[in-house]
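INFO  loader      accepted 1 record
INFO  loader      residues=153
INFO  predictor   begin
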Amino acid sequence: MTSHRLTNAYKALLSCAPAPLFRKARDLYLKKYALDGRKSNSPLRLFLASESLNETITPDPDAPPHGRIARLEAMTDELALVHWQRPGPADHNAVERYLRDTWDLSDSPLAPCEAPWFRDSGHQQRLTLPKALIWIREARYQDVEQSLNNENP
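INFO  predictor   done
INFO  writer      dumping tokens
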């Protein structure tokens, strides 16, 4: 089970992230800012290693005939544990303590990663979560184009 701390940090991070429409900006943001927050002084930091996005548009049953609901779902199940600005991995006990005390994660298998984190920010290890983190946003709107097409056949 994913911890509440991790889920809340994920939601906070994505609430400030650039929209998926701006792919490069979003990618840079997620590589630059850790789940730990912007002011973390910890030698260990947790980042999103991958993200999958799914956008759907469905009719809005409360606003027929042209109402729509746009739904964006972001998911991640792989995180990067970065030994901040250090070329080698952190001490195993320090890693276990950090994951347990900061994120309520225990027995989390870590996979070594050859490449350093973004822009040589430090040694990274990958952590696959047992359950993906999910963030959902919905917005209601009127399909103006469809409305205009119906008015002007």
